[in-house]
């Protein structure tokens, strides 16, 4: 296999790998010149010295692409592009094989949320308060402005409507074709969670400590479920239940029809991660180091990781029986989804909030060290 990799030109693209040789253009010095607030934003315990002296595992690194801001956005692959946002305000489309830049779209503020693609259109939201719809070549189709910043609430598309939440306390339904508002529902707190849509119902959490179920067509409230902490993460739906975590430290299973509680698990730690479901098991991570695999019917713990990891703000992703999860110190971890065995970890220079995209032979994700990484599977 030809393992030669090369970056496209970018301000912080400093590593070119050719077979087992690495050309290093003084990344240590470069990282040390970036202010700590730019790299970490208060989201990591890693020191300036650790960040500036970090060196990646070259044996697994296919390529890395440097941006001018933190990369908390989770990438997606569509039409030959690896799409990922950065807090430098740019949504980039990279060649998944080489990391070369195909195109970039620049918003007026940082991009923390993750891009979504539907029917050949790219949707992405920004801290500039705006939801954008782009063609696959990066050309802007339309934009929709909300009343405040859009942080981690990624757009969700269903039946010709785009749903997104904003710090202005509203969840919006916008026409996917034209960008016109169809309805807006106001809560009593900012919305940082991405909406989940299932069978025509929109589920979205708010910093007013509640999870809402809304009619997708009209925005009419179906029910409201109250917790004792902010609900800043996306919900997951399986069968007749909705699963969501809260900063009150509890993970909830809620009846999808009437919004009543079926069960809850007290994790003892704030939950800043969205759950995921794989093979009749619900997986959820807590802020302080735990990844749980739960029975969806009872809330019983199938396993919790025994290997301590650092604080977690990332969403777990499960592919081919492997659970991938980033931490706030700078590692991407891989666990056996059935047993909880810790398989491996890959170090970056700062916090990993980005959830990876996993292909047959490559894992793509971002880091607060300002880089987008493409790494090999350990077995490849």
From TrEMBL:
Pfam families: PQQ_2. This is PGF-CTERM sorting domain-containing protein. SUPFAM superfamilies: Quinoprotein alcohol dehydrogenase-like. PANTHER family: CELL SURFACE PROTEIN, OUTER MEMBRANE PROTEIN ASSEMBLY FACTOR BAMB. It comes from the Archaea. Residues 55-147, 152-228, 233-308 form the Pyrrolo-quinoline quinone repeat domain. InterPro entries: PQQ_b-propeller_rpt, PQQ_rpt_dom, Quinoprotein_ADH-like_sf, WD40/YVTN_repeat-like_dom_sf.
């Amino acid at each position: 296999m030809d393992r030669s990799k090369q970056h496209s030109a970018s301000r912080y693209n400093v590593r070119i790998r050719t077979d087992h040789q690495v050309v290093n253009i003084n990344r240590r010095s470069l990282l040390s010149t970036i202010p700590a607030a730019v790299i970490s934003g208060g989201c990591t315990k890693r020191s300036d010295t650790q960040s500036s002296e970090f060196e990646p595992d070259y044996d697994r690194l296919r390529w890395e692409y440097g941006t001018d801001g933190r990369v908390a956005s989770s990438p997606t692959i569509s039409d030959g592009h690896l799409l990922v946002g950065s807090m430098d305000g740019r949504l980039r489309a990279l060649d998944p094989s080489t990391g070369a830049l195909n195109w970039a779209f620049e918003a007026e503020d940082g991009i923390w949320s993750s891009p979504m693609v539907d029917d050949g259109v790219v949707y992405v939201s920004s801290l500039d308060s705006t939801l954008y719809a782009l063609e696959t070549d990066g050309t802007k189709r339309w934009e929709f402005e909300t009343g405040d910043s859009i942080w981690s609430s990624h757009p969700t598309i269903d039946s010709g409507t785009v749903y997104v939440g904003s710090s202005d306390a509203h969840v919006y339904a916008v026409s996917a074709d034209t960008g016109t508002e169809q309805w807006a529902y106001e809560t009593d707190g900012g919305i940082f969670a991405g909406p989940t849509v299932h069978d025509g119902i929109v589920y979205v959490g708010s910093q007013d400590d509640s999870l809402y179920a809304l009619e997708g067509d009209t925005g009419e409230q179906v029910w409201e479920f109250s917790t004792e902490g902010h609900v800043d993460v996306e919900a997951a739906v399986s069968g007749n239940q909705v699963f969501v975590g809260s900063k009150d430290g509890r993970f909830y299973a809620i009846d999808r029809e009437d919004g009543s509680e079926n069960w809850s698990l007290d994790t003892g730690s704030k939950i800043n991660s969205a759950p995921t479901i794989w093979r009749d098991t619900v997986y959820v991570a807590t802020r302080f180091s735990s990844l749980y695999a739960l029975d969806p019917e009872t809330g019983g713990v199938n396993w919790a990781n025994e290997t301590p990891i650092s604080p977690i703000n990332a969403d777990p992703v499960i592919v081919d029986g492997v659970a991938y999860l980033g931490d706030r110190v700078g590692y991407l971890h891989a666990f056996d989804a059935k047993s909880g065995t810790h398989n491996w970890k890959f170090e970056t220079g700062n916090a990993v909030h980005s959830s990876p995209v996993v292909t047959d032979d490559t894992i793509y994700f971002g880091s607060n060290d300002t880089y987008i990484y493409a790494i090999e599977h350990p077995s490849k």
